[in-house]
Amino acid sequence: MDEREGMGRRAIARCDVLGAPPYSLAVDRLDRPFLTSAHAAAGAIIGGWMTEAGLTTRIDPIGNLIGRLGPKDAPALIIGSHIDSVRDAGRYDGPLGVMIGVECAQALHRRGRPLPFALEVVAFGDEEGSRFPVSMMGSRGMTAPLPLEQLELTDAEGISVAEALTAFGLDPVRVNDAVRGPGEVLAYVEPHIEQGPALEAAGLALGVVTAIVGQARLRVRFKGVAGHAGATPMPLRHDALAAAAEAVLAVERVCAAGPVDLVGTVGRLLTPIAAYNVILGEAEIGVDVRAAADSTRDAAAAAIRREIEALAERRGVAVEIEVAQALPACPCDAHLVDLMEAAVASVGVSPLRLVSGAGHDAMVLARIAPVAMLFIRCAGGISHNPAEHASAADADLACRAMLAFIDRLAEEHA
Ligand SMILES: [Zn+2]
Predict the structure, then answer these.
(1) 382 — phi, psi (to 5°)?
(2) Ligand 1 centroid distance, CA of 111 (Å)
(3) How many angstroms is it from 242 CA to the middle of ligand 1?
(4) What is the whole-number distance in angstroms between the Cα of residue 45 and the centre of ligand 1?
(5) Which residue in 127, 225, 288, 358 has a CA-CA distance of 20 to 30 Å to 60?
(6) Is residue 320 located within the same domain as residue 261?
């Protein structure tokens, strides 16, 4: 087996190792939340792989594992992703990006020719937010001081972030020492499985991400008049659930009529009671709207709002619409996107540009450095599911494209 062919196979095999105890808290599924024994065990074995690859390792004050190659004071190109997981996770969401980073470091270390910048491989401890009620603590803690009250947030067992950091061997008082200084990060690149079906549909192993979508969440509450299901004639009803149902279809209609990157979902429908014989007086839906450009998303959210207000008025139902969350879209750096596109083409894959519908650490790192992302095809577009799968051949192409990207960046900085 030639060393290059082996990169993808080893990256995948290592993700598979990380899919079982002690790297998972559960025996029959993959659960690896932030600052748990499974996280510590994963950090220990990945740290060993990093050392083998020639990287010098450390754990930063917020629990991120960092492996570094190259001059001490030089700005670093960071290849990173997360090693925490959702509950009952797949094995590749996060860890594959870290394993690809380790493979790149090993290849560069073996080659022995120094880069004009440092290389860091970072395994973020928290991206998914599966333990505490906030997410991306690892990358947020690296880019800006964490709000102090977040250290007091507790998990389901009442353990605070500060207590969990202490149990992990870290000092919560020092947590903000994890913040990187200005100029320390040259660029951030994240290889990640696509978590959607576009690459598979196009018959391509790799894709170049141009932007991570922005998200708007609307909480919509309908207030009609509760009534007897038998005794109230149809024209006299003010049915809150029927209004909510019509609103769900309005969201679907508005977003289906927009550009392909515009998506809208209602995955949350709440009613105070569930009964066969009651016309419901109250109903609430949660609307999630995403698009590559904030202007597209905001226009869709406004159109949805108008449609909902109109249908509520027609039905004689009161409606209250509240913005529950608005995260701006994060464009990838145009120049790095071009470099990545050339790198992907150089390994024989026709480069497809696509937007990421899911959030990633890259959107946080974008606050301090230019970012790029490389997507790797995943079978059936399935993710956050134990059936998640990426192939060794595709992972190998990703390693080679990443190395080509690093070489191109190195040429520019020579
Ligand atoms: Zn992920």
Answers:
(1) -85, 130
(2) 30
(3) 37
(4) 20
(5) 358
(6) yes
Q: Do residues 12 and 153 both lie within one domain?
A: yes
Count how many Cα atoms sit within 13 Å of the Cα of residue 116 in the half-sphere of its side chain.
10
R_g of the chain, CA atoms, integer Å: 24
Distance 192 CA to ligand 1 centre (A): 7
How far does residue 376's CA lie from ligand 1's centre (Å)?
12
Q: pTM of the full predicted structure? A: 0.87
For residue 116, give Cα distances in angstroms to 75, 227, 365, 407: 9, 73, 21, 10
Question: What is the count of structural domains for the chain?
Answer: 2
Q: Which of 327, 346, 362 is the last residue of a domain?
A: 327
164 and 24 in a single domain? The answer is: yes
Pair 252, 308 in one domain: yes
- Alpha carbon of 189 to ligand 1 centroid (Å): 14
User: What string of pLDDT tens digits covers the 414 residues of the chain?
Assistant: 445 459 999 999 999 999 999 999 999 999 999 999 999 999 999 999 999 999 999 999 999 999 999 988 899 999 999 999 999 999 999 999 999 999 999 999 999 989 999 999 999 999 999 999 888 999 999 999 999 999 999 999 999 999 999 999 999 999 999 999 989 999 999 999 999 999 999 999 999 999 999 889 999 999 999 999 999 999 999 999 999 999 999 999 999 999 988 999 999 999 999 999 999 999 999 999 999 899 999 999 999 999 999 999 999 999 999 998 888 899 999 999 999 999 999 999 998 999 999 999 999 999 999 999 999 999 999 999 999 999 999 999 999 999 999 999 999 998
Q: Are residues 312 and 344 in the same domain?
A: no
The angle formed by the CA atoms of residues 145, 151 and 157, to the nearest 5 degrees, is 150
- The CATH number covering residue 195 comes to 3.40.630.10
Q: Note residues around ion ligand 1 (Cβ under 5 angstroms).
A: 93-94
- Centre of ligand 1 from the C-alpha of residue 107, in Å: 24
Eight-class DSSP state of 172 = G
Burial class (CB in 10 A: 0-12, 13-18, 19+), 264: buried
Range of the domain at 203: 3-212+329-413
How many whole angstroms from 328 Cα to the centroid of ligand 1?
18
Of 292, 327, 362, the residue at which a domain comes to its end is 327
The CATH number of residue 279's host domain is 3.30.70.360
Task: Tell how far CA 288 is from the center of its chain.
Answer: 16
**112 Cα to the center of ligand 1, angstroms:** 31
Ligand 1 centroid, distance to 97 Cα (angstroms):
9
